[in-house]
Amino acid sequence: MTDWIEVAKLEDIPRQGARVARTAVGDIALFRTLDDQVFALRDQCPHKGGPLSQGIVSGHKVACPLHDWKIALDTGIAQAPDEGCAARYPVRLENGVVRLSLSPDEGCPNG
């Protein structure tokens, strides 16, 4: 069974922006897209560990602020030709409240 924790209100995360949730499993970046979808990734680029929460959100990708790697928000996978993956965490939006599971989704080889 997955335990969900309340981490923010949707309005606390700017559109095309991010906020950091400090959790027992480390920092998790919460991203909000223009269409109000929320995604959660470990706040570390798979390349050099840059803070993804400080990157620029465009569409459903975030660009790492260190070396401009593009990471897909829905999968955590780096856009080719770059290779790597940032662990992805399940998110629920309930009545304007963002809830997060601290169990990363499967499928990220280095999650």
From TrEMBL:
It comes from the Bacteria. Gene3D superfamilies: Rieske [2Fe-2S] iron-sulphur domain. GO terms for molecular function: 2 iron, 2 sulfur cluster binding; metal ion binding; nitrite reductase [NAD(P)H] activity. The keyword Oxidoreductase applies. Keywords: 2Fe-2S, Iron, Iron-sulfur, Metal-binding, Nitrate assimilation, Oxidoreductase. GO terms for biological process: nitrate assimilation. Residues 5-100 form the Rieske domain. This is Nitrite reductase small subunit NirD. It comes from Parasulfuritortus cantonensis. The gene is nirD.
